[in-house]
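Revision sheet: structure tokens.
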Amino acid sequence: MFRGSMVAVVTPMQADGALDFEALARLVEFHIENGTDAIIAVGTTGESATLDFEEHITVVRKVVEWVKDRVPVIAGTGANSTTEALHLTQRSMAAGADACLLVTPYYNKPTQEGLYRHYKLIADTVPIPQILYNVPGRTACDLKPETVERLADVPNIVGIKEASTLERIQELVRRCGDRLDIYSGDDGIAAEAILSGAKGVISVTANVAPRLMHEMSMAALAGDRAKAEAIHQQLTVLHQALFVESNPIPVKWAVGQLGLIPSGIRLPLTPLSESFHPAVRAAMQQVGVL
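Predicted:
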């Protein structure tokens, strides 16, 4: 249903943590002008954990308004409370989102049956396309391939963002790639994932290098391994630099260096440590975005 480079867009904030909607509007135009294929509003990179409910829905609504149907808008609506995730998904559909992205419930450590029931209840209740999101390194919860296979039979569960290993992505493509779109959730393996049958990447790096991430994704989707790998090699230093501290700390600093957003980030996250500024700046310069 969705293809290519889909940015998990940062949520701009002033130094005091207040949301900056003027900067958010600039980001929307920046991504459309630079080929981003879809925008994920208030995903985990968008600091969904620290936005309150009304802020969350307001960001989704404004992104939908500013995009004006030029690219799909996917709302991050996952939570570790099924009731909260359900309400966020309902409100995001009402706000005009084209789909929702739901991270696995974090901290709770539900069983595979609990995960199945969580996702199925939300999908059965809210008639909007839904994308599962598995990132066990952040959530302490692993959505196993056999559970994904069960969920692939739910009509409006249309894809999964898999942020673990290339081998897991390849297994998901084999098991249910005919029923679900598989997306890489890790920029560092995205090129090979797409060449292996994934339909795109939900990307952190696209916040900083949207054109290159789009071109890499399109080359891989077209089966042009040489071009996809060449762009991947160009971007590798940036992929690495954007994780020198916990995401989205480095990427928000990097987008700020592009002059697109102010410096705000919400506690418990803090601004990028000064000791990492030279490395991130050098990576941006090497890639040619700064």
